[in-house]
Design brief:
alpha+beta; 5-stranded mixed beta sheet; about 30% strand
Length: about 220
């Protein structure tokens, strides 16, 4: 009789333990599901998916018409997502905002575009707050007689390597945003700014002798 009662108590305890384990597992899963529902899972996003998210978040301010050649007050803005009803990212996304000068140099009958980095600013964002990157002061206008324009882009991940750097498919004097190409899918948004010296970018501009380019690159990272 005693042995039977012991077995019954043992069975009841085993069943209770199993029920508690199932309850704990259910609560853990529900908690995990709740956490996943509060943010957007980006842990396995490809470069293209990261760029797609950036495309909806990035805006350029003060660059519409090029009326201010110095672009004083112009900025690149990575907007907070919750303001538009979107969810923040579960994992912060590394973003680079980079500025280049594109200069058209002509030698004889051949014209080529030289690219030089002016500034690169690194930041980390999950879309929970707006991040603003101001344009560098005194953007170079290029040497006399050389068509020079400034390109700005926001992209995900590490700094661009050689094959990923931008180029234009049209004459720099008439090129637009759609004529700029990158060797990567990580680009979220870019803008080719109007020339600060429009006379240097006319179709009948004088031929300039090539000379070494000089540029200063600032590499700033803010987590």
């Amino acid at each position: 009789m005693h042995s039977t009662q012991t077995r019954l108590r043992h069975g009841a305890l085993t069943a209770c333990a199993a029920a508690l384990a199932l309850l704990a597992a259910g609560c853990s899963k529900a908690s995990a599901d709740a956490r996943a529902g509060d943010c957007r899972d980006d842990g396995h996003w490809s470069g293209r998916e990261q760029a797609a998210w950036l495309r909806t978040a990035v805006a350029f301010r003060g660059t519409a018409d090029g009326a201010g050649p110095s672009y004083e007050g112009a900025s690149v803005v990575v907007r907070a997502q919750h303001t538009g009803g979107g969810r923040v990212l579960c994992q912060p996304l590394g973003v680079q905002v980079e500025f280049w000068t594109l200069s058209a140099r002509t030698t004889g009958t051949e014209t080529r575009t030289e690219t030089s980095s002016v500034m690169r600013y690194g930041l980390s964002t999950d879309g929970s707050r707006t991040r603003t990157v101001g344009f560098p002061r005194g953007l170079p206008a290029g040497q006399d007689g050389i068509c020079t324009r400034v390109l700005v882009a926001a992209y995900a991940g590490a700094p661009l390597s050689g094959p990923e750097l931008p180029w234009t498919t049209q004459d720099l004097a008439i090129a637009g945003d759609m004529d700029v190409r990158f060797g990567t899918e990580r680009i979220g948004a870019h803008r080719l700014l109007p020339p600060q010296d429009p006379t240097a970018c006319t179709t009948d501009r004088p031929t300039a002798d090539p000379s070494p380019t000089r540029s200063t690159t600032w590499d700033i990272y803010h987590p």
